[in-house]
Amino acid sequence: MTPIRRRTLLQATTATLPLMLALRPSAAQDKFPGKPVTLIVPQPAGGDADVVCRSLQTKMQEVLGQPVVIDNRGGAGGNIGTALGAKAAPDGYTVTFVNQGTMALNPTLYPSPGYKVEALAPVTWLTSIDLVIAAHPSVPAANLKEFLELARKAPGKYTYGTAGNGSANHLAGEMLKSMAKVDITHVPYKGGGPAIIAALGGEISTVVAFPLAALPHIRSGKLKALAVTGKQRSKALPDVPTVAESGVSGYEFASWMGLVVPKGTPDAAVQAIHAAAAAALKDKDVADRLSAGMTEPVGAGPKEFGALIAREGQRWSALIRQYGMKID
Q1: Which runs of consecutive H residues, i.e. helices, occur in 264-301?
Q2: What is the distance between the alpha carbons of residues 195 and 271, in angstroms, rounded to a whole number?
Q3: pLDDT of residue 192
Q4: Domain that holds residue 119
Q5: Is the dihedral of CA 148, 154, 156, 157 positive or negative?
Q6: DSSP 3-state percent helix, strand, coil across the chain (nearest 5)
Q7: Which of 259, 265, 268 is nearest to 302 (CA)?
Q8: What is the pLDDT of residue 195?
């Protein structure tokens, strides 16, 4: 090659290099994730949300190839952690655990929850789950039917604890009070874990709880299960009646859990997070652990989860008004 041709080729390459660099995806876009991912859990450690997320954590890290760091931010019925997640940078590195409470109940219950559902993009519908109503051993009732009889004889004497105002547990309890026509005092806590601890200590009569966190204490005899809130009895607690079987005809309550990211997060990041969560839910050890805790893995993607959020938001806003629920 002559010097003139070599110089011409070098000039042409130099001129097109900026354009080539501009068209080339950035290193961050080449592969997601390129650093640890934070998973905000809007409950204290030890609650149902925390148990689910820690069950998924190891497999998600394996699939993503990066650490998944759980950040517990409890309080205000999940509003504090959810608001933090909604305000995060839309880059895929902040994922937020959500449930029926934060996505379908709180926007109606709270005048200003601190976030808008529309600011969050659905990623994965993780689970479907029934709740369990459990009592401290000192409560003189073997099942919910007997407990309701006690409550009718002493209005306001007995209490039920929940993960907080506006939580799914709260709505399940208020539905029970309304349909059973009993006066039981609601005691909100900053998460499911603290509510269970209060029940274990006899601070409250009963707790409406997600079973993953409550079942170990039920099996050890430190709490006694009065009823489950689903349509059918649970395989995990076959001898425990449903609320409907306990004399509250038509009662049925099931909740759900999922993952979201800030709106505007790149689709590649959304799909990578969903793939990791779905793989974790399919892992036999994870699936068995969740199912044993009355928590059924779902694993549906952004489209299905988005449709669920919209459907549930409409349904529960109407029921909240029907049952006269309010933040106390």
Answers
A1: 267-282, 284-292
A2: 35
A3: 87
A4: 35-128+255-323
A5: negative
A6: 50, 20, 35
A7: 259
A8: 95
Burial label, 305 (beta-carbon count in 10 A; 0-12, 13-18, 19+) = buried
d(CA 96, CA 258): 8
In whole angstroms, what is the distance from residue 79 CA to residue 167 CA? 10
217-226 residues labelled b (16+ CB within 10 A) or e (exposed) = bbeeebbbbb
The pLDDT of residue 30: 63
- d(CA 303, CA 270) in angstroms, rounded, equals 12
Q: How far is CA 132 from CA 189, 262, 267, in A?
A: 17, 32, 37
Please state the domain count of the chain: 2
Position 19 scores a pLDDT of 46
Does residue 19 lie within any of the structural domains? Answer: no
Contact of 174 with 183, CB cutoff 8 Å: no
Q: Which stretches of the chain score pLDDT less than 50?
A: 3-4, 8-10, 12-29
Q: Which of 212, 246, 280 is the last residue of a domain?
A: 246
pLDDT value at position 17? 44
Examine the domain organization and report whether 86 and 48 are in the same domain: yes
DSSP states of 84-142: HHHTS-SSSSEEEEEEHIIIIIHHHH-S--SS-GGGEEEEEEEEEEE-EEEE-TTSS-S
Domain boundary among 225, 246, 267: 246
Residue with tokens 């099996």: 219
Same domain, 231 and 262: no
Residue 1, Cα to own-chain centre: how many angstroms? 67
Among the listed residues 144, 89, 5, 105, the one whose alpha carbon sits nearest the alpha carbon of residue 321 = 105
Pairing mode of beta strands 185-188, 159-162: parallel
Model pTM score: 0.78
